[in-house]
Specification:
By secondary structure, the chain is an alpha/beta fold. It has helices at about 60-65, 65-70, 85-110, 125-135, 225-240, 250-265, 280-290, 295, 300-305, 325-330, 350-360, 375-380, 415-420, 435-450, 490-505, 515-530; strands spanning about 1-5, 15-20, 25-30, 55, 80, 135-140, 145-150, 150-155, 165-175, 175-180, 205-210, 240-245, 275-280, 320, 340, 365-370, 385-390, 395, 400-405, 430-435, 455, 465, 470-475. Helices cover about 35% and strands about 20% of the residues.
Amino acid sequence: MELMFIGADHEVTGSCHYLCVNEKNILVDYGMEQGAQTYQSCELPVEPALIDYIFLTHAHIDHSGMLPFLYARGFRGSIYTTDATADLCSIMLRDSAHIQMQEAEWKNRKAKRTANNEQVEPVYTMEDADGVIKRLIPCEYEEKIEVCPGVTIRFTDIGHLLGSASIEVWATEENITKKLVFSGDIGNIGLPLMKDPRMTKEADYVIMESTYGDKYHSEVKTDFIGELTQILQKTLDRGGNVVIPSFAVGRTQEILYFLRQIKEERRIKGHEGFPVYVDSPLAVEATGIFQRNSLECFDEDAVALIKRGINPITFPGLHLAITSDESRAINFENTPKVIISASGMCEAGRIRHHLKHNLWRPECTVLFVGYQAVGTLGRAIVEGAKEVRLFGETIEIRAEIEKLVGMSGHADKAGLLRWLEGFEKKPERVFVVHGEDRICKIFTECLKGEHGQKAYAPYSGTRFDLLANEFIYEAEPVIIKKKGHLVSDVFARLVAAGQRLMAVIYKNEGGTNKELGRFADQINALCDKYDRQ
């Protein structure tokens, strides 16, 4: 019984853990790396075609975004996740595939103008996204599910995003059961719409995030509506736009919740009918999913509004931009307005167009409402960049840059400790992941020195024997010297197809001689066709 750390170790994005129980190969999350990465993540210990199950904590791309890549490489196992996460993945993974395909097309057009003319393929395609979405198995919160002999799981609401969960895993091997709890991303308390994180009572091993393991969001409860009202009032009075780079799923819906209340209470003077544009097809679709899952996943305040016949995330003056023409028209409308657009870290999507049109205008405000990873455009702007490059142009930053401090879907240090202290007795070990290098170390030392926990922050590649409660291998950090975009090629697809073929062959062991003989003849015929001496 082995646990191996693959991604988001001493870093924030690209979450992935590997678990082997009774020769079953299991992943917990398989996310995409976003922003600059310091450390190299190790390869999976088995080929994708040999992975039997994936347990998914939530739909954010840094936890789910490489699932279609696995499918493209031969994965055909089952993915267990919550109902709402399955719904969100159905749109988010297709959106991600669309971005991958667009980026590859752009690179190929650019390459044609060079002597090299080297063509690339997308990391994965829409077909891969559709394929992996069909592998999703929706589960209810708090339902115990026997995945296979020796492996039982349960999802618990962790309050980070619609459908987000910590995952309890009961793993049994050699008549010994060990319980692991993967925290996923632990939610902040008091978030609009979302319930507060639920506690888990017991675990032998805890694998927990540490995104804000060195920070406290606020000593007192932040008045987000009051702060947002002030920012809106002064910007609209100047005749400017408030541009909000926002994650399409989760944060956009929370901002809409605040704006509905601001409008209902007529807090903005002189601009009571100010328009709000949500310029993200993904955000529009996600908002619909939020509404369909509201009674199950929303907190008491939001459910109370629904029972009174009030939709908590819509209001008069809300405009949804779907098409490219509708998106472009926003910046040619002179009325001072609020523009909410993705991506939240300004790395892709329509937000970059809105930044191009508004960053240089001193009357405008760019308001950040979420975490900005190292190396992203959003992080550069928040940290005081004087100019940025957008679409081949240098844009001087004259707009006011604001940030809603404490507006985070992640628990702060107090929230992380509160969740860990919810266990009735100390786990055998606590593995600290999903935090920048410095923060991982600080939080781990805090757990050891101040709270008596047996804590450890593994680097990618670290392997742990769960039965013996000891390390098989403690990996050292591998620094990335030069990190490029992940690009696949046709030969890699061919190799992946061969690996999947081997997995299928082993799965057919025990078949009838007639079936196996026909299968062998088909393989040999294919080999004869392509065998090059």
